[in-house]
Amino acid sequence: MQNDPLKPGYDFNAHLVAGLTPISKGNDLDFVIDRPNGMKGFIINLTVKGQGTVFHGDESFTVNEGDLLLFPTGVPHYYHRSEEAEDWYHRWIYFRPRAYWINRLKWENCINGVFITKGVHIDDQEKLELLFKQIEELSKQDEPYSDELTLNLLEQLLIRCKMNQPNLIKKRVDPRITEVLNYMAKHLNEDFSNEKLAELVCLSPSRLGHLFRDEVGMTITQWRDDQRISRAKQLLVTSNYSINQISRLIGYSDPLYFSRVFKNKAGLSPKLYREKVM
Ligand code: FCB
């Protein structure tokens, strides 16, 4: 375990981490970023200088200044500086999306599960880069509401990316999955079963499970826990509720279980999280 997200071995147990990776020929970042199982969250990546290569062999493609990449949860990462280029500087944001972002997280062009947007208009490029920078700055501040502000800017960023898609309305998420997501978002504090969700959209639980994984990239439980923990973080810094109360409010009847899930997802206990930010 180490503290630099630019180097291998960093533990991405967080809802959002952002940075700039300045790779130059021969420098200490000039290696292949290789994560065969992808990551637990999404990554959005913007090339700001030079050229990068994604994947290898027949599947490989390059990205240049202004090009955007979006790696959904679990999609393999394999990228590095292009051999012909001296540099590849890219900004990136690792994040766990909010429930209702799902349709914004599908872009028109997709190679091996990785979405790519090229040819962004120059004015938009500037706006996007500014958002990347602001998000990075904000994400490093431990202040009440900085998490929310960061997610708000990220939402703007994702909307701008979506606006840059050649065909805005294609590539929608299966409406049954949208319904399930909306249902869960509204009833996060309740103890609903997968059978109940399946019934809602007239699918068998196992068919729903598969469809959900295909569309969202994680299991229903993982998604639900992610959303609950993100709500818990909000409550921890913006309310005086005790940890037991928060646990109940977000749908965990067992506070110990809540603390365990929280620690697993946020990297520290709810108590420490609150102390750190307050
Ligand atoms: C860094 C990479 C960057 C991104 C983050 C998550 O090490 O340089 O591209 O993948 O990890």
TrEMBL record:
UniProt GO molecular function: DNA-binding transcription factor activity; sequence-specific DNA binding
PROSITE patterns: HTH_ARAC_FAMILY_1 (PS00041), HTH_ARAC_FAMILY_2 (PS01124)
Keywords recorded for this protein, A-Z: Activator, DNA-binding, Transcription, Transcription regulation
Domain of life from the UniProt record: Bacteria
UniProt keyword Transcription regulation present: yes
Domain HTH araC/xylS-type: 178-276
NCBIfam families found in the cross-reference section: PRK10572.1 (NF007860)
Name listed for the protein in its UniProt record: Transcriptional regulator
